[in-house]
Amino acid sequence: MGPLPRTLELFYDVLSPYSWFGFAVLCRYKNIWNISLQLRPTFIAGIMKDSGNQPPALLPRKAQYLERNDVRLLGQHVQVPVQFPKDFFSVILEKGSLSAMRFLTAVSMEHPEMLEKVSRELWMRVWSRDEDITEPQSILAAAEKAGMPSEQARGLLEKISTPKVKNKLKETTEAACKYGAFGLPITVAHLDNQTHVLFGSDRMELLAHLLGEKWMGPVPPATNARL
Amino acid sequence: MGPLPRTLELFYDVLSPYSWFGFAVLCRYKNIWNISLQLRPTFIAGIMKDSGNQPPALLPRKAQYLERNDVRLLGQHVQVPVQFPKDFFSVILEKGSLSAMRFLTAVSMEHPEMLEKVSRELWMRVWSRDEDITEPQSILAAAEKAGMPSEQARGLLEKISTPKVKNKLKETTEAACKYGAFGLPITVAHLDNQTHVLFGSDRMELLAHLLGEKWMGPVPPATNARL
């Protein structure tokens, strides 16, 4: 038996493009590095409220930089087909991600094997094709694209307003806050006797260094480029 | 004759530890990549004022993250001997960097060959040994450590309150603002027909990708680890 894998928790929200970048990179490395990756759907608005932080795009010059430079260039570099939604403020600040993240929470509780794929399809909707992720039919469409049987998806959707699912999302969000989150994604690396918290999608080379694993860029050659 | 080197401008302030990381990495790569690196001493408080941004450490949870996690871990990874000053708020928010950045501006105008070394010694004072960088004798001590003759250093120090030096620092700060800066460092990459603006010290792998150069981590093996 080899050494026990170290655990990485990735706290993410599909409203956050940097969460997508972090998710894409870690999903590529999870079979290369000796790690166990736990995907933790989290509610970003809850993190912002609890920490007193503001979405970066509220500062006009940051919004410009994110849209014209950083998200675009990182999308090319990380090979994720990201596109800014046309009406960014309505999509991100008004419509939000509560139902989508409750749905992913239900997926994580009942069909964890589908969580990666459904998460990816929700990002593809909101952060690539500028499609809604708040209406029931939008969420069902993402689940269908991910390959989930429609009966199963409907069953999960019915559960998103139950206390069990709501509380689970709340607990995960509180856990992220306890780790010191003021935004998403955060990666919490549980190594031998240490826990490291890394904010954002741009500490993956540092993470490799902490793990003693090899960093081969955001698209490691051993895997096919996956979203 | 090989192809003309592409120009990178690094806008930095010694009050910013992330500027130090970016500076350290680019100074290591400047002789490896086909680039011309221009060091541009900038006044971070001017950037914050003009953009309406706030220093990240004003949000308590960010301050905690920066000190306990990010700056410490990046310091190890980038191999820069960074240490948080004990009285962070007094050093960063009250004392600031105006004289130090005016001094570096004078160095860049009259003895540009000394700019890299003097900048590094100022970071060593404020962000490694928790020493003052506002008093004349502090600045002279940094210049001396960098190997500048004391007569020369005194001459430059006398010039920091001249309109020529003050205006030059103002112009550089305004230039950074025109590139969209809301903090430091920013790296402005002038490639064939494109200009890319990269914020922070964590886009260097992306920069390599834009340049078509090889990324070998923050401490490329071809050079000795330099601060």
Automatic annotation (TrEMBL), chains A, B:
One cellular-component annotation, GO: mitochondrion
Keyword match Transferase: yes
Family label: Belongs to the GST superfamily. Kappa family.
Matching InterPro entries: DSBA-like_thioredoxin_dom (IPR001853), GST_Kappa/NadH (IPR051924), GSTK (IPR044088), HCCAis_GSTk (IPR014440), Thioredoxin-like_sf (IPR036249)
Gene, per the UniProt record: LOC101687538
Keywords attached to this entry: Transferase
Listed GO biological process terms: glutathione metabolic process
Identification of the protein by name: Glutathione S-transferase kappa
Active site location: S16 (nucleophile)
Species classification: Eukaryota, Metazoa, Chordata, Craniata, Vertebrata
Domain of life, source organism: Eukaryota
Catalytic activity entry: RX + glutathione = an S-substituted glutathione + a halide anion + H(+)
Organism: Mustela putorius furo (European domestic ferret)
Enzyme class label: transferase
Domain (DSBA-like thioredoxin): residue spans on this chain: 7-211
GO molecular function: glutathione peroxidase activity; glutathione transferase activity
Pfam families referenced in this protein's UniProt entry, alphabetically: DSBA
